[in-house]
Amino acid sequence: MTNKRTYRKKQKKKKRRKRILLWILTPILLLVLGATCYASFLMHKAESVINKSYEEIKGRDQDRPNLKIDNFSILFIGIDDSRSRNFKSDTRSDALMLATFDAKKKSVKLVSIPRDSYVYIPSEERRDKITHAHAFGGVKGTIETVEQLFDIQIDYYVKMNFYAFMDVVDALGGIEVEVPYNLKEKDSEDHHNAIVLKKGWQTLNGEQALALARTRKLDNDIERGKRQQEILKAIIKKASSVRSITKYDDLLEAIGDNMKTNLTFDEMKSLIYYATSSEGKLNIESLHLQGTDDYIDGVYYYKLDEQSVEEISQELKNHLQGLDTTTSTDNSDSGASSQTDHADDDGQP
């Protein structure tokens, strides 16, 4: 009799344990299944967004590198097509940044190109401001101009307008950057003095980050290029540290119709692998072009120093070839020449 009672008690305990385990495991399983389904949903959504953003360049894109093992280059093109300016096909580029990637060493070299740089534009067969290359020939014309300048092949491009930039920063919950001085600047709709920033390290939202990236009031195009590089680094750092899966949904929403690229979805995944596989050791080096102010027929241009262009060109070539490089040009902050703020030839700053 005692043995039967003992057996029944053991059976009851086993059933209770099973019920307890079931209560514990059920929500865990639901969470795992939910996360898996959501991750799958995000993957499909990401593929849809990238496919929608994909835009190849006719006559190019035949020989594509393998982003996991090959070195490659990307041209980032920032476009100001705010509704207040109503630019269409003749939109000028407001920011140009060329990046070369060494897949083995997990290193990146970045160089910003001042928008008023006086360069040869192949599609027009004449020299003009590099910002006009996009208005003349779109993405293809811009890529050909930058290739002509540095004598290297550009494999990929990413073109984003200001709305995408702001939305990405906001989706990340802001970015940590250093504001070099007190600043009053217009917002994305060109409302004057709408953005007010104080000097020092702080978290900026999308509108504030855009104002800092655009301004040239208190320094020059070279310094603006440096700020844009620092802002891009801050975005990369924040994006790579995001843990919440819902943030990726926000990032995909932010990209939406505001980005064009010739990176396929699989190549974009490889690019993410490139960053995440570096285990936090991704080395990003900034290079800075030097030059002087110049006027031609009363129009302001930035005349690039030929030696600076040649040495940075060689450094980018060596980087793409996987060679260690050192340059004689001082590419530190102190090496950049001074340039005052100037209006565009149509009066636009």
TrEMBL record:
Record field: compositional bias (Low complexity): 324-338
Chain ranges of the Cell envelope-related transcriptional attenuator domain: 92-240
Stretch list, region Disordered: 321-349
Taxonomic superkingdom: Bacteria
InterPro entries with a match to the protein in the record: LytR/CpsA/Psr_CW_biosynth, LytR_CpsA_psr
NCBIfam families: lytR_cpsA_psr (TIGR00350)
Family named by the database record: Belongs to the LytR/CpsA/Psr (LCP) family.
Name this protein carries in UniProt: LCP family protein
UniProt lineage: Bacteria, Bacillati, Bacillota, Bacilli, Bacillales
